[in-house]
Specification:
229 residues, alpha/beta, Arc Repressor Mutant, subunit A, 2 domains, five-stranded parallel sheet, four-stranded antiparallel sheet, 8 helices
Length: 229
Protein backbone atom coordinates (compact mmCIF):
# COMPACT_ATOMS: atom_id res chain seq x y z
CA UNK A 1 0.00 0.00 0.00
CA UNK A 2 1.32 3.44 -0.95
CA UNK A 3 2.37 5.64 1.94
CA UNK A 4 0.03 8.52 2.71
CA UNK A 5 1.25 11.96 1.73
CA UNK A 6 2.08 13.98 4.85
CA UNK A 7 0.56 17.46 4.89
CA UNK A 8 1.84 19.99 7.44
CA UNK A 9 -0.73 22.65 8.42
CA UNK A 10 0.52 25.76 10.25
CA UNK A 11 -2.54 27.67 11.47
CA UNK A 12 -3.24 29.36 14.80
CA UNK A 13 -7.01 29.47 14.30
CA UNK A 14 -8.18 26.22 15.92
CA UNK A 15 -11.42 26.05 13.94
CA UNK A 16 -9.73 26.52 10.57
CA UNK A 17 -6.91 24.13 11.45
CA UNK A 18 -9.25 21.39 12.66
CA UNK A 19 -11.43 21.79 9.56
CA UNK A 20 -8.44 21.36 7.26
CA UNK A 21 -7.21 18.31 9.19
CA UNK A 22 -10.63 16.65 8.95
CA UNK A 23 -11.00 17.39 5.23
CA UNK A 24 -7.48 16.21 4.35
CA UNK A 25 -7.71 13.04 6.44
CA UNK A 26 -11.03 12.30 4.71
CA UNK A 27 -9.02 12.35 1.45
CA UNK A 28 -6.58 9.85 2.97
CA UNK A 29 -3.76 12.30 3.66
CA UNK A 30 -1.72 12.27 6.87
CA UNK A 31 -2.44 15.77 8.22
CA UNK A 32 -0.32 17.29 11.00
CA UNK A 33 -1.38 20.57 12.63
CA UNK A 34 0.81 23.06 14.54
CA UNK A 35 -0.15 26.58 15.60
CA UNK A 36 3.09 28.50 15.09
CA UNK A 37 5.87 28.86 12.54
CA UNK A 38 8.68 27.77 14.85
CA UNK A 39 7.00 24.40 15.35
CA UNK A 40 6.43 24.25 11.61
CA UNK A 41 10.16 24.52 10.95
CA UNK A 42 10.87 21.91 13.66
CA UNK A 43 8.34 19.51 12.14
CA UNK A 44 9.92 19.86 8.68
CA UNK A 45 13.38 19.12 10.07
CA UNK A 46 12.15 16.11 12.06
CA UNK A 47 9.88 14.57 9.42
CA UNK A 48 9.58 16.50 6.15
CA UNK A 49 6.07 16.86 4.76
CA UNK A 50 5.02 16.37 1.15
CA UNK A 51 3.29 19.76 1.20
CA UNK A 52 2.86 22.68 3.62
CA UNK A 53 -0.25 24.79 4.18
CA UNK A 54 0.45 27.90 6.25
CA UNK A 55 -1.27 31.05 7.38
CA UNK A 56 0.79 34.19 6.79
CA UNK A 57 -0.20 35.97 10.02
CA UNK A 58 1.12 33.81 12.86
CA UNK A 59 2.31 34.56 16.40
CA UNK A 60 6.06 35.11 16.44
CA UNK A 61 7.67 34.20 13.14
CA UNK A 62 5.44 34.92 10.14
CA UNK A 63 4.33 32.31 7.67
CA UNK A 64 6.43 33.96 4.96
CA UNK A 65 9.57 33.79 7.10
CA UNK A 66 8.85 30.14 7.86
CA UNK A 67 8.31 29.41 4.18
CA UNK A 68 11.69 30.89 3.29
CA UNK A 69 13.39 28.70 5.89
CA UNK A 70 11.58 25.61 4.61
CA UNK A 71 12.43 26.41 0.99
CA UNK A 72 16.12 26.69 1.84
CA UNK A 73 16.23 23.12 3.13
CA UNK A 74 13.34 21.58 1.16
CA UNK A 75 13.03 23.59 -2.09
CA UNK A 76 10.97 20.86 -3.74
CA UNK A 77 8.15 20.92 -1.16
CA UNK A 78 5.12 22.96 -2.34
CA UNK A 79 3.81 25.63 0.06
CA UNK A 80 0.24 26.96 -0.04
CA UNK A 81 -0.23 30.23 1.84
CA UNK A 82 -3.47 31.19 3.61
CA UNK A 83 -4.27 34.80 4.42
CA UNK A 84 -7.11 37.20 5.13
CA UNK A 85 -5.37 39.86 3.08
CA UNK A 86 -6.96 40.73 -0.24
CA UNK A 87 -4.53 43.26 -1.68
CA UNK A 88 -2.86 41.97 -4.87
CA UNK A 89 0.55 43.19 -3.70
CA UNK A 90 0.42 40.74 -0.79
CA UNK A 91 -0.36 37.86 -3.15
CA UNK A 92 2.44 38.88 -5.51
CA UNK A 93 4.92 39.24 -2.62
CA UNK A 94 4.11 35.76 -1.31
CA UNK A 95 4.49 34.18 -4.74
CA UNK A 96 7.74 36.01 -5.43
CA UNK A 97 9.14 34.87 -2.09
CA UNK A 98 8.61 31.25 -3.11
CA UNK A 99 5.01 30.30 -2.32
CA UNK A 100 3.53 27.82 -4.78
CA UNK A 101 -0.09 28.85 -4.29
CA UNK A 102 -2.19 31.36 -2.38
CA UNK A 103 -5.71 31.06 -0.90
CA UNK A 104 -7.52 34.06 0.56
CA UNK A 105 -9.77 33.74 3.63
CA UNK A 106 -12.61 33.03 3.91
CA UNK A 107 -12.29 29.90 1.79
CA UNK A 108 -13.95 26.57 1.22
CA UNK A 109 -11.98 23.59 2.56
CA UNK A 110 -12.89 21.87 -0.71
CA UNK A 111 -10.96 24.57 -2.55
CA UNK A 112 -7.89 24.02 -0.37
CA UNK A 113 -8.10 20.24 -0.82
CA UNK A 114 -8.34 20.74 -4.59
CA UNK A 115 -5.26 22.98 -4.49
CA UNK A 116 -3.40 20.36 -2.44
CA UNK A 117 -4.22 17.64 -4.96
CA UNK A 118 -3.14 19.85 -7.85
CA UNK A 119 0.15 20.83 -6.24
CA UNK A 120 1.02 17.26 -5.24
CA UNK A 121 0.21 16.17 -8.77
CA UNK A 122 2.19 18.75 -10.64
CA UNK A 123 4.86 20.21 -8.36
CA UNK A 124 7.37 17.80 -9.89
CA UNK A 125 8.55 19.22 -13.20
CA UNK A 126 6.61 17.47 -15.94
CA UNK A 127 7.58 18.98 -19.24
CA UNK A 128 9.33 17.48 -22.26
CA UNK A 129 12.86 18.29 -21.18
CA UNK A 130 15.61 16.18 -19.59
CA UNK A 131 15.96 16.48 -15.83
CA UNK A 132 19.68 17.14 -16.28
CA UNK A 133 20.66 19.77 -18.83
CA UNK A 134 23.91 21.49 -19.78
CA UNK A 135 24.40 24.72 -21.71
CA UNK A 136 27.42 27.01 -21.84
CA UNK A 137 29.21 26.64 -18.51
CA UNK A 138 25.94 25.83 -16.71
CA UNK A 139 24.82 22.42 -15.46
CA UNK A 140 21.30 22.20 -14.07
CA UNK A 141 19.61 19.27 -12.34
CA UNK A 142 15.91 20.07 -12.62
CA UNK A 143 14.76 17.16 -10.48
CA UNK A 144 16.97 18.24 -7.57
CA UNK A 145 16.60 21.95 -8.42
CA UNK A 146 20.32 22.56 -8.31
CA UNK A 147 22.46 24.61 -10.67
CA UNK A 148 26.23 24.78 -11.13
CA UNK A 149 27.81 27.60 -13.14
CA UNK A 150 31.56 27.58 -13.69
CA UNK A 151 31.94 25.38 -10.61
CA UNK A 152 29.76 27.55 -8.33
CA UNK A 153 26.65 25.73 -7.05
CA UNK A 154 23.31 27.31 -6.19
CA UNK A 155 19.76 26.17 -5.51
CA UNK A 156 16.72 26.97 -7.61
CA UNK A 157 13.35 27.77 -6.09
CA UNK A 158 10.34 25.79 -7.28
CA UNK A 159 9.30 28.57 -9.65
CA UNK A 160 12.83 29.24 -10.89
CA UNK A 161 13.24 25.56 -11.74
CA UNK A 162 9.79 25.39 -13.31
CA UNK A 163 10.40 28.52 -15.38
CA UNK A 164 13.79 27.31 -16.58
CA UNK A 165 12.41 23.84 -17.34
CA UNK A 166 9.56 25.27 -19.39
CA UNK A 167 11.88 27.59 -21.33
CA UNK A 168 14.32 24.73 -22.01
CA UNK A 169 11.48 22.48 -23.16
CA UNK A 170 10.48 25.22 -25.61
CA UNK A 171 14.01 26.33 -26.49
CA UNK A 172 14.19 28.50 -29.56
CA UNK A 173 10.51 29.42 -29.24
CA UNK A 174 8.92 32.63 -28.03
CA UNK A 175 7.12 32.03 -24.72
CA UNK A 176 4.67 34.61 -23.35
CA UNK A 177 4.48 35.72 -19.74
CA UNK A 178 0.88 34.49 -19.51
CA UNK A 179 1.98 31.08 -20.80
CA UNK A 180 4.61 30.88 -18.07
CA UNK A 181 2.11 31.95 -15.40
CA UNK A 182 -0.34 29.29 -16.53
CA UNK A 183 2.14 26.43 -16.89
CA UNK A 184 4.56 27.17 -14.04
CA UNK A 185 2.35 28.94 -11.48
CA UNK A 186 -0.87 27.22 -12.53
CA UNK A 187 -2.90 30.39 -13.08
CA UNK A 188 -5.05 30.76 -16.16
CA UNK A 189 -5.47 34.46 -15.40
CA UNK A 190 -2.39 36.60 -14.99
CA UNK A 191 -1.91 37.77 -11.42
CA UNK A 192 0.97 39.97 -12.49
CA UNK A 193 3.41 39.72 -15.35
CA UNK A 194 5.92 41.34 -12.95
CA UNK A 195 5.98 38.02 -11.12
CA UNK A 196 7.42 36.35 -14.22
CA UNK A 197 9.82 39.21 -14.93
CA UNK A 198 11.24 39.00 -11.41
CA UNK A 199 11.80 35.24 -11.76
CA UNK A 200 13.62 35.84 -15.03
CA UNK A 201 15.85 38.47 -13.39
CA UNK A 202 16.75 35.99 -10.63
CA UNK A 203 17.49 33.24 -13.16
CA UNK A 204 19.67 35.52 -15.24
CA UNK A 205 21.77 36.34 -12.19
CA UNK A 206 22.39 32.62 -11.72
CA UNK A 207 23.08 31.56 -15.31
CA UNK A 208 24.26 34.57 -17.33
CA UNK A 209 27.81 35.93 -17.41
CA UNK A 210 26.35 39.43 -17.72
CA UNK A 211 22.70 39.42 -16.57
CA UNK A 212 22.04 42.80 -18.21
CA UNK A 213 23.22 41.36 -21.56
CA UNK A 214 21.80 37.80 -21.51
CA UNK A 215 22.88 35.09 -23.94
CA UNK A 216 20.49 32.34 -22.88
CA UNK A 217 17.23 33.88 -21.62
CA UNK A 218 16.39 36.53 -24.17
CA UNK A 219 13.62 39.12 -23.95
CA UNK A 220 11.11 39.05 -26.80
CA UNK A 221 9.65 42.55 -26.69
CA UNK A 222 5.88 42.62 -26.63
CA UNK A 223 5.71 38.86 -26.00
CA UNK A 224 7.88 37.39 -23.29
CA UNK A 225 11.07 35.35 -23.41
CA UNK A 226 13.03 32.83 -25.46
CA UNK A 227 15.68 30.35 -24.30
CA UNK A 228 18.77 29.83 -26.43
CA UNK A 229 21.29 27.15 -25.31
Amino acid sequence: MAQKARILIVEDDETIGAGLVTALEHENYNAVLVDNAEDGVTQMLAEPASLVISDIMLPGMSGLEMMQQIKRTHPQVPVIMLTARTDEIDRVMGLEMGADDYVTKPFSVREVVARVKARLRDHNIDVSTPKFYTFGDVEVDLSRRTLVKAGDASRLTTHEAGTLAYLIAHRGQDVSRDELLENVWGYTVSYSTRTVDNQILKLRKKIEDTPAEPRHILTVHGTGYRFEP
